[in-house]
C-alpha cells in the first residue's frame, strides 16, 4: 500500500473514531501527522510542524476571545434584548428576529454551536409562548447561525478563506459569505411559509397574552383559593436576561445594565470594538487575528471584572481541531495524496459530476462529524482539481461551504442536538426528534444538489 492510499485510510479512520468516540479529531490528526510523517515518509518533527497554521490559530483565539468578552459583559444580551423589542406585538417577526440575531452573532466571531446555544432556548420559549411551530423556530436559528458563519471575520470564513488563499485560488471572501447567507435565507423563507408562518402574519402578541391570562385565571378559580402570580420553571440556558417569570405575565425582563449606568460602559466599548474590528480588518486589510486580539485586550483593560473568565471560553477544542487537521493536510501534501485524489477526480472525465460528488461527501460526513474538519480536509483535496480550470473555483468553494454546513440541522450534530434539548415543555420529544431527523435527511439529499445546481453547474461563479 502506497503512502497516498495509506494516508486516505488514516484520514477516514480519524473521521470514524472522532464520530463514534468523544475524541477531538484535531488530537487524532496530530497523531496521524506524526505517524504518517515520521514512520512512513521519513519526515522530522520540524518539517511536520511547518504546516501548523499559526495565523489561523491567532485568528480563532482572537475572535473567540473577543466574542467571549462580549458574552461575559452582557453585550450579547443587550443585542438580543434590543432585537426582541423590535418585534413589538408582531408575532410573525419573531422567527426572523431570531434568524438575523443568530446570524449577527456568528458573523462577528462566534462559532455556530455557541450562537445556537445562546439563542435556541430563547427562540423556543417564544415558540411555546406564541404557539409558533418549534421545528420552524429551531431550524431558523440554525440556518441563521450558518448564514452568518462565513463572514470574513467569522471562524468558518477565516478557515475557508485562509485555505483558499494559501492554495493560490482566486475566490472572493464576500462571495463565500453572501452565498451562504442568501442560501440559508432562502431556506428560512421556505420554512416560514411551509410551517405555518403565513398564519402568524395576522397574529398579535396581545391575543396570546389574553388567552394565557384567561387560562391562568381559570386554573386559579378551580384551586381552593386565589393564588398570586408565581415564578414558573424556565427551560433553557445561555442568557440570564429572560426571567424565570411567567411568559404569559406582564412583567418584563430587567434591562441589561439596570444595575447602573456604569455597567453599560463595557457593553458600549464592546460594540465600538466590533465596529473597529470590521473597519480595520475588512476596510484596511489588516490581519483579523491581530486586530481581534488587540480589541479583546483593550476591552479587558477597560473593564477587567466584566471579562473575568473569558479566556476559558475561547474555543480551544476548535483551535485544536483546526491546528491538527491542517498540520495533517500538510503531511498529506508531502505524501502526494492531494495530487493523487485530484488526478482520480479529473480522471472521471466529468468535472461537473465530480464537483457534485465533492459536495455530497461534504454534506453526508458533516451531518455526523465536524463541519470545520470536513472543510479543512476537502478544500485542500479539491485544490488541484480546481486549478485545472474545468470547474469554477468560486462556485465550487461556495457550494462546498454551503453543503457542508446546512446539514448541521441534523440531530446528530451539535446544533441539531441543542435545538432538540431545548424543546418547549409540552412538546413530544420523540416526535420532535423524528421531525428534525426527517428535515435533516431532506437537507442532506436536496441541499448539495441545489447548491451545485445554482453555484457550480451554470458556471457563473
Automatic annotation (TrEMBL):
- Could you identify this protein by its name? Dicarboxylate carrier MatC N-terminal domain-containing protein
Q: Which organism is it from?
A: Kocuria sediminis
Please give the start and end residues of each transmembrane region: 6-39, 51-70, 96-123, 175-195, 271-302, 314-332, 352-379, 385-407, 436-460
Start and end residues of each Dicarboxylate carrier MatC N-terminal domain? 1-149
* Keyword Membrane appears in the UniProt entry: yes
What keywords would UniProt list here? Membrane, Transmembrane, Transmembrane helix
One family name in Pfam for this protein:
MatC_N
Q: What is the lineage of its organism?
A: Bacteria, Bacillati, Actinomycetota, Actinomycetes, Micrococcales
Q: Which domain of life is it from?
A: Bacteria
Amino acid at each position: 500500500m502506497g503512502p497516498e492510499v495509506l494516508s486516505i485510510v488514516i484520514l477516514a479512520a480519524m473521521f470514524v473514531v472522532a464520530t463514534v468516540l468523544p475524541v477531538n479529531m484535531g488530537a487524532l490528526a496530530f497523531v496521524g501527522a506524526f505517524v504518517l510523517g515520521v514512520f512512513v515518509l521519513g519526515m522530522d518533527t520540524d518539517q511536520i510542524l511547518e504546516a501548523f497554521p499559526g495565523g489561523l490559530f491567532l485568528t480563532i483565539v482572537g475572535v473567540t476571545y473577543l466574542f467571549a468578552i462580549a458574552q461575559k459583559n452582557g453585550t450579547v444580551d443587550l443585542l438580543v434584548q434590543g432585537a426582541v423589542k423590535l418585534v413589538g406585538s408582531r408575532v410573525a417577526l419573531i422567527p426572523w428576529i431570531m434568524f438575523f440575531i443568530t446570524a449577527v452573532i456568528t458573523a462577528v466571531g462566534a462559532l455556530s454551536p455557541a450562537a445556537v446555544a445562546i439563542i435556541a432556548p430563547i427562540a423556543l420559549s417564544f415558540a411555546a409562548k406564541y404557539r409558533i411551530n418549534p421545528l420552524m423556530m429551531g431550524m431558523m436559528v440554525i440556518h441563521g447561525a450558518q448564514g452568518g458563519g462565513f463572514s470574513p471575520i467569522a471562524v468558518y470564513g477565516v478557515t475557508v478563506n485562509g485555505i483558499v488563499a494559501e492554495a493560490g485560488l482566486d475566490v472572493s471572501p464576500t462571495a463565500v459569505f453572501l452565498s451562504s447567507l442568501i442560501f440559508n435565507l432562502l431556506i428560512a423563507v421556505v420554512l416560514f411559509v411551509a410551517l405555518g408562518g403565513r398564519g402568524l402574519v395576522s397574529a398579535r402578541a396581545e391575543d396570546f397574552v389574553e388567552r394565557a391570562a384567561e387560562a391562568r385565571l381559570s386554573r386559579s378559580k378551580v384551586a381552593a383559593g386565589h393564588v398570586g402570580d408565581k415564578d414558573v420553571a424556565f427551560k433553557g440556558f445561555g442568557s440570564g436576561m429572560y426571567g424565570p417569570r411567567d411568559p404569559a405575565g406582564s412583567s418584563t425582563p430587567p434591562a441589561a445594565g439596570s444595575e447602573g449606568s456604569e455597567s453599560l460602559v463595557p457593553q458600549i466599548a464592546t460594540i465600538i470594538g466590533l465596529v473597529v474590528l470590521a473597519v480595520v480588518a475588512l476596510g484596511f486589510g489588516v490581519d483579523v487575528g491581530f486586530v481581534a486580539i488587540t480589541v479583546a485586550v483593550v476591552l479587558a483593560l477597560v473593564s477587567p471584572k466584566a471579562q473575568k473568565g473569558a479566556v476559558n471560553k475561547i474555543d480551544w477544542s476548535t483551535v485544536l481541531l483546526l491546528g491538527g487537521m491542517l498540520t495533517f493536510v500538510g503531511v498529506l501534501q508531502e505524501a502526494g495524496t492531494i495530487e493523487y485524489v485530484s488526478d482520480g477526480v479529473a480522471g472521471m472525465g466529468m468535472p461537473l459530476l465530480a464537483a457534485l460528488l465533492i459536495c455530497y461527501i461534504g454534506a453526508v460526513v458533516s451531518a455526523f462529524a465536524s463541519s470545520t474538519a470536513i472543510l479543512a480536509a476537502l478544500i485542500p483535496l479539491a485544490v488541484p482539481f480546481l486549478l485545472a480550470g474545468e470547474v469554477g473555483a468560486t462556485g465550487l468553494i461556495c457550494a462546498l461551504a454551503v453543503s457542508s454546513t446546512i446539514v448541521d440541522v441534523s440531530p446528530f450534530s451539535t446544533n441539531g442536538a441543542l435545538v432538540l434539548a431545548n424543546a418547549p415543555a409540552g412538546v413530544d420529544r420523540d416526535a420532535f426528534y423524528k421531525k428534525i431527523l426527517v428535515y435533516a435527511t431532506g437537507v442532506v439529499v436536496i441541499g448539495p444538489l441545489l447548491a451545485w445546481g445554482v453555484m457550480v453547474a451554470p458556471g457563473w461563479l
